[in-house]
Amino acid sequence: MSLKKIFLIGLATFNITFSLAQSSNNTSAFLDNVRFGGSIGLGFTNNGFNGSISPSAIYQFNEQFASGASLSFNYAKFDDDKFLAYGGSILSLFNPIPQIQMSAEFEQLRINRTIATQTIEVEDNYWLPAFFIGAGYSTRNVTVGLRYDLLYDDNKSIYGNALMPFVRVYF
């Protein structure tokens, strides 16, 4: 997916969010429905580690639906390979009941990868998309769960595998 398409998807999401919010004619009412927070992710495999932090803001449409954007910072190390990644994502959250949260998130990361062998060190930089679907248990402002990357690529992904635990907090 090209950077232009990703930008247009993000722009459309924000446009819809702000259009719906401005129908109330009260900026204060809009800000009352914005929640700030983010998530922390950890992944472990037999030969590596992945850690991420993603501050974000969401607009709470009602008790069940929320949508927003997030920044992402990731670091991973597998054997002699190191990854540093940064980027952003758009996400949607759905709570069918207060204790269960379903999520969908499209993430676009810029990957800076260093692969070391016994004789040479190779650096590679590229864009990597990820599309996560997830489910978690929510209690008050905290959700703990698992998410799965539908676009997972074993050769390019910064994540150790397609399945990752997460913790999301919004205030």
| CATH-assigned fold name | Porin
The share of residues in helices is: 10-25%
Instruction: Write down how many β-strands occur, each being a DSSP E stretch of 2 or more residues.
Output: 8
* Strand-pairing-aware structural class: alpha+beta
Signal peptide: 1-21
Keywords: Signal
Protein name: Alpha-ketoglutarate decarboxylase
Could you explain the architecture of this structure?
The chain has helices at about 5-20, 25-30, and strands at about 35-45, 50-60, 65-80, 80-95, 100-115, 120-140, 140-150, 165-170. About 15% of the residues lie in helices and about 65% in strands. The protein has a single domain (about 5-170), classed as Porin (Beta Barrel), CATH 2.40.160.20. It is elongated, with a radius of gyration of 17 Å. Strands 1-2-3-4-5-6-7-8 form an 8-stranded antiparallel barrel. The mean pLDDT is about 85. It has 2 helices and 8 strands; from the N terminus they run ααββββββββ. With about 170 residues, it is an alpha+beta fold.
Write the layout of secondary structure elements.
Blueprint: H1 3-22, H2 27-32, E1 34-45, E2 48-60, E3 65-78, E4 81-97, E5 100-116, E6 121-139, E7 142-149, E8 163-170
Antiparallel strand pairs: 1-2, 1-8, 2-3, 3-4, 4-5, 5-6, 6-7, 7-8
In short:
The protein has a single domain, classed as Porin (Beta Barrel). The radius of gyration is 17 Å and the shape is elongated.
